[in-house]
Amino acid sequence: YNGTCLAKKGEGARAVPLAGHVGFDSMPDQLVNKSVNHGFCFNILCVGETGLGKSTLMDTLFNTKFEGEPTQHNQPGVQLKSNTYELQESNVRLKLTVVNTVGFGDQINKEDSYKSIVEFIDTQFEAYLQEELKIKRTLHSYHDTRIHACLYFIAPTGHSLKSLDLVTMKKLDSKVNIIPIIAKSDAISKSELTKFKIKITSELVSNGVQIYQFPTDDETVAEINSTMNGHLPFAVVGSTEEVKIGNKMVKARQYPWGTVQVENENHCDFVKLREMLIRVNMEDLREQTHTRHYELYRRCKLEEMGFKDTDPDCKPFSLQETYEAKRNEFMGDLQKKEEEMRQMFVQRVKEKEAELKEAEKELHEKFDRLKKLHQDEKKKLEDKKKSLDDELNGFKQKKTAAELLQSQAQQAGGSTTLKRDKERKK
Amino acid sequence: MMMPPPAMPAAFQVEKPVPGPGMGDFSYVGIDAILEQMRRKAMKQGFELNIMVVGQSGLGKSTLMNTLFKSKVSRKSVQATSQEKIPKTIDIKSVSHDIEEKGVRMKLTVIDTPGFGDQINNENCWQPIMKFINAQYEQYLQEEININRKKRIPDSRVHCCIYFIPPTGHCLRPLDVEFMRRLSKVVNIVPVIAKADTLTLEERDFFKQKIREELRANGIDVYPQKEFDEDAEDRMINDKIREMIPFAVVGSDQEYQVNGRRLLGRKTKWGTIEVENIAHCEFAYLRDLLIRTHMENIKDITSSIHYEVYRVRRLNENNTAIAHEGEDTHWGD
Asked: Which family does it belong to (chain B) (predicted)?
């Protein structure tokens, strides 16, 4: 086509002043309305040892009772259980998915603990990638299951991070936004807590673990975010039980020596966590997941499968061409395998045929042999019969001859006999 | 006020009482703060809008664009032409502008098509336009399937195409029907009756009715398309719009004194036509539709429907060059 651009798109667009009210300042409203109609999706992964209060914290954060009973400590391996809930507040509908690591840290040998978590996260990325690569796709209504935030629960030892924690966080930091929190922090005193936080942060830095930093590029929230960045990791206490303090009912944990109020900022950092996680940065968490972690996964996965953007001669490849090449390769392999199988089949048939021929031949021979045997026997018998017949004939002849003689002898010898008798009488 | 914990765990309401300044309102979680976060993000990123204007020369396309955006955004304002020669073939020229209003930044790109319908033989004059639109889809697709792709893919896809119908007062011409039929399948078309100050109100109504009938008879689905209405509320709003299409517009960038106020209009010996007066012409409706209420929806339909259709087709093909698009293949008929 005869197309020319007077101004190149993306760069050098002229800034034009408006002479009156046009009305596109309603665009953010239109966008927000569309999102409200569509609903939002948020997925949290809770990683931490059994018994650190993960479920209770989720209940406290979202002000409700999610289902589930406390898990046993004798799980053979780490499993991930996810549950999805529909929450609504004023006109905003949120599809919240909470994924719990069951059995994390309970095994004797924990070398492979992190593997199931990494696998789970990758599976969600893979599902999204598959949907994105489909020919007929429905990205618009796709239920996004990618993990947007990972709350890592650190046990309140007061000293330092466990090596399991370091290893797991290192494996997860390039796949998900990690927000480390100190669980059950009412077990630590204030002074110990400060030291603990410093130790944790320095250990994370020295091990090169990238935790999620609240964004400071937007002036509206830059200040609060950068302050909060300094308070990481948040020391939290969760509770769904309410205690009367003064004349109000507050969420708290009651001890004989006092009451820990969950929403009292002097007691713990719960309010900070809620502010940061939900009220200020939920959208940024979702965006980071999509533009950073997911893109990294996608790039690695596609490169692994052999796709490249440019080939060695630096000419751009199209995905289409690579698909074609791969498919041809695959078809070629398939054909080769088919050929091989066919060859083998033909060979086997030949062998079997030869075998059968052999057997047939043998049978024929046997038959011939038997036939011959039979004939021999028959001949022998016939010979015997013949000789028997001859004997019989001979005997018969002798018999008739003897009878003849006898009858002659009787006639002539009636007198002979008399003669003999007279002779005897004389 | 305290909300008792709900009985059903699966789906429930979390009512919020009066939210205090971040302290002790324990039944308010703050999920709806995400709307504010989204708004902030949108303000920071800014918006992009690409409008294409199609119509014969002399129908007032450039003036209308300038009127819509209250500034000199048309090609003519940018390109100094002492003598406007009708080009031999269709040229596609796009100009980008950065405009801002109340903190909301927008990158507006106006794509002009001088030469459309101006030749003696106008056969296949829609081809270059189809090619251009598909080339934008192609560019987006290429970026999307890259391994290393940009954080935000620059969106140059045509979101909306305003088609100018000359105010003959009778019916659509074959060129109009052909063009709209083909292009309504790849882009959102908003037809407008240009220079509507040459029609009386009765002539205007008659003309509109004829046009609507003809569009229906030819199966042309212009924006807002019936099949993309999402729910009853949408349908109600869009039905009202569909009854008014095509909008009869008059454009002007000159202000005149009317009843003590300065208004945009066209002054004649028999009176002054006020552009923004809905009794005179429907410019205000067009502006509201395009900018104030349906802009997001227009972009949505472009990206999730028209672009996806292109993508499906493209990925199913085997390297057939889309450069042949627009020719009378099976597509579009």
From this structure: Belongs to the TRAFAC class TrmE-Era-EngA-EngB-Septin-like GTPase superfamily. Septin GTPase family.
Q: Does residue A302 sit at the B interface (CB-CB below 8 Å)?
A: yes
Q: Do A61 and B98 touch (CB under 8 A)?
A: no
3-state secondary structure of A99: strand
Distance to chain B for A293, nearest Cα, Å: 12
Q: d(Cα A342, Cα A325) in Å, to the nearest integer?
A: 25
Q: What single-letter amino acid sits at B17?
A: P
Contact B148 A283 (CB under 8 A): no
Pick the CATH number of B43-72+87-319 from 2.102.10.10, 3.30.70.260, 2.70.50.60, 3.40.50.300: 3.40.50.300
Contact A12, A64 (CB under 8 A): no
- Please report the beta strands in A61-139, taking only residues with DSSP state E, as ranges in sequence order: 79-89, 92-102
What ipTM was predicted for this assembly? 0.71
Q: Which of A17, A61, A67 sits opposite B9 (nearest CB)?
A: A67
Q: Tell me if A3 and B151 make a contact (CB, 8 A cut-off).
A: no
Question: pLDDT tens digits for chain A (426 residues)?
Answer: 333 333 334 455 778 788 778 888 888 888 888 888 888 899 999 998 888 888 888 888 888 777 666 666 667 778 888 888 888 888 888 889 999 888 887 777 777 888 889 999 999 999 999 888 888 888 878 888 999 999 999 988 888 888 888 889 999 999 999 999 998 888 888 888 888 999 999 999 999 999 998 888 888 888 888 888 888 899 998 888 888 888 888 888 888 888 888 888 888 889 899 888 888 889 899 999 999 999 999 999 888 877 665 544 333 445 556 667 778 888 999 999 999 999 999 999 999 999 999 999 999 999 999 999 999 999 999 999 999 999 999 999 999 999 998 888 888 766 555 556 666 665
Residues 6+ apart with CB under 8 A from A139: A131, A132, B304
**A61 closest CA partner among A101, A102, A90, A94:** A94
Domain limits, chain B: 43-72+87-319
